[in-house]
Amino acid sequence: MAFDGAFLHKTVSELKEACDSHIDKIYQPSKDELVFLLRKKDFCKRLLISVKQGSARIQFTENKYENPKSPPMFCMLMRKYLSSAKLIDVFQPEFERIAVFTFTASNEMGDIIELRLIAEFIGSKTNIILAGQDGRIIDSLRHSDPETSERLVLPGAQYTFPEKKRKNNPLDDSVIKLYGEKITAEENPVGVLLDGIDGFSPLVCREAVYRAEILKDGYKALKSIAEDIKSNSKPLLLLKEDGSPYDFSYTDISQYGGKFKKQQFGSFSELLDAFYTKRDNAERIHKAAADILKLTNNIKSRTEKKLAARLLELEKCENREQLRIYGELLKANLYRAEPGARFIEAENYYEDMKPIRIPLDPALSPQQNAAKYFKDYKKTYTAEQTLTKLTEEDRKELIYLDSVLDSISRSESLSEIAEIREELTAAGYIKRPRERKKNTQAPGFREYTCREGYKILVGKNNRQNDYITTVLASKNDLWFHVKNIPGSHVIVMCHGESVSDETLKKAAMLAAKNSKASSSSQVPVDYTPVKYVKKPNGAKPGMVIYTTNKTVYVTPSELSDGITEGA
User: Fold this and answer.
1) Do 261 and 338 belong to one domain?
2) Do both 259 and 186 map to the same domain?
3) Among the three residues 121, 140, 159, which one is the final residue of a domain in this structure?
4) What's the pLDDT tens digit per position in 84-110?
5) Which residues contact 519 (CB under 8 A, 6 or more apart)?
6) Is beta strand 455-458 parallel, antiparallel or unpaired with respect to 490-493?
7) Contact (CB, 8 A) for 264 and 270
8) What is the model's pLDDT at position 465?
9) Are 136 and 178 contained in the same domain?
10) Using CA atoms, how far apart are residues 149 and 124, in angstroms rounded to an integer?
11) What was the pLDDT predicted at 567?
């Protein structure tokens, strides 16, 4: 990723807008992230500092992060020292990947002191450090090992910047001329730029070499990049064909030709939100859901094996009528059976008196052989009834487990994962800890408004599905669900009023989009008034039966305008 020294230089310039603001709130959503709510007149923004490997950055963010119920110790320390502190400066030492925030705050004695919050984005040694006005470290997110580290990062130690490899300023014209000549003369110009110019990432180095080849002039190539660093250039996002982010920069990237789409943003923070947020949120959710995902897959695998074994046993019960016939014929022909015989032959009056050979156990008498056939018949009859019921239960459980896996795959927040976990706990798949009380909070759900003004509710998991269908919906509202595929319940709260074809299609598209068929076309979606939707006694969460339904075919990707998210 191209969060290099030059990109940080541009970002820090943008963050200077927050100077003279006060810290209103401090959060630590994860062990590697801090969020500060900054306020002043006509200004209120969230400042995110992330030192997470692969997504380390600073920026203003529009995202509302989910925070742990109990703040971590480092967050408590930040609150102790920086609550209500005033931000007076943000700077970057040369083109190092370090940002320093200078605050003024009141100490315990009421005196005004100066504090520095240092965010380091250097390789694998990313860190957030709080230092006092004497330069000594108050604490840091990560501590160094005094036995192996050359630089001490521990409470009480004097803060020093990391040792820097000597590089040249990319804005110095003499440096631009020197390295402009080297681009055309060196065998490895990308490596020369990377080792010699400060703040350049591999992406920008490759771009400089590419421009030099096109322009036939290394100086002009580097000069154009330097101008973009100094000017108010627009941040650029490179997108793959599927629309997912690939990379970003502060200067135009032309080395890939037409391989990637380009999207410009109004601010560097806006670009970073677009690039990282979706990926980081997906990673956070994946970690939170890892245990229940593994549990559900394991249960599904065991259930599939049980079902296969029971179906095999059920096949063996198919010849049970033959056992009854053997018993009846043997009983009618006991006089023909000789003691110790291995079979007898008799006329089968069930099939036009055709001759039939009946196997016998020579260790048993003819009467005992007949009794054994009747006993085996009764046993297979009982087994067939039991196995039929069990296999039906197995199939229902597999359908339910598929719906849980589908809900996990479509979860977009930690609260949705918590609801699925509570659902599995209530269903008995997860043992509930004794000290924890059952969650009685109403489950969340998505809410939209169509052009006609009707609310459209969408459940994101089985708890939400049950809640909107059996609690919130009235009997004359419309209920939607993809046909024979795990997915969301969708309710159009029309209260029996006539609904336009557009609203029907939009609701059906929402049902298709929030299902396993989200990437398909011409998806069949059933809909019916809620009064025809029933939840059988003992049914698992989200499981219902319905009648008097109609079916509409929709393509989820066509869902665009016509509905608004939120109340």
Assistant:
1) no
2) yes
3) 140
4) 999 999 999 989 999 999 999 998 888
5) 556, 557
6) antiparallel
7) no
8) 94
9) no
10) 13
11) 47
Q: Are residues 477 and 384 in the same domain?
A: no
Together in a domain, 196 and 121: no
pLDDT at 478 over 70: yes
Same-domain check for residues 257 and 328? no
Phi then psi for residue 306, to 5 deg, are -60, -45
Give me the domain span that covers residue 381. Answer: 315-391
| Interval 215-244: pLDDT, tens | 999 999 999 999 999 988 889 999 988 777
Out of 230-234, 411-415, 496-500, give the one with best mean pLDDT: 496-500
Tens digits of residue pLDDT in 305-328: 999 999 988 887 877 788 888 888
* CA dist., res. 556 & res. 6, Å (int): 41
Residue 310 lies in a domain: no
Number of H helices, E strands in the chain: 12, 23
pLDDT tier, 366 (very low <50, low <70, confident <90, very high otherwise): confident
Distance of CA 114 to the CA centre of its chain: 41
Q: What distance, in Å, lies between the first and last C-alpha atoms of the chain?
A: 38
Q: How many domains does the chain have?
A: 4
Regarding whether 185 and 123 lie in a shared domain, the answer is no
CB 330 within 8 A of CB 337: yes
Rounded Cα gap, residues 204 and 5, in angstroms: 11
Considering 140, 165, 189, which residue would you say is the last residue of a domain?
140
One domain for residues 187 and 135:
no
Write the DSSP assignment of 460-489 as a string of letters: SSHHHHHIIIIII--TTSEEEEETTS-B--
Q: Write the DSSP string, 307-369.
A: HHHHHHHHHHGGGHHHHHHHHHHHHHTGGGPPTT-SEEEEEETTTTTEEEEEE--TTS-HHHH
Strand partners, 553: 524
> Is residue 494 situated within a structural domain?
yes
Domain with residue 95: its CATH number is 2.30.310.10
Q: Which token pair is 237?
A: 């996002």
DSSP codes of every residue in 201-266: -HHHHHHHHHHHHHHT-HHHHHHHHHHHHHTTPPPEEEE-TTS-EEEEESS---TTTTSSEEEE-S
Residue 157 forms part of a structural domain: no
The pLDDT tens digits of the residues spanning 439-466 come to: 566 788 889 999 888 999 999 899 999 9
Asked if pLDDT for residue 374 goes beyond 50, the answer is: yes
Per residue in 139-175, pLDDT (tens digit) is: 999 999 888 888 899 999 999 998 888 899 999 999 9
Residue 218, C-beta contacts closer than 8 angstroms, at least 6 positions apart = 179, 180, 181, 182, 183, 184, 208, 212
Residue 103 lies in a domain: yes
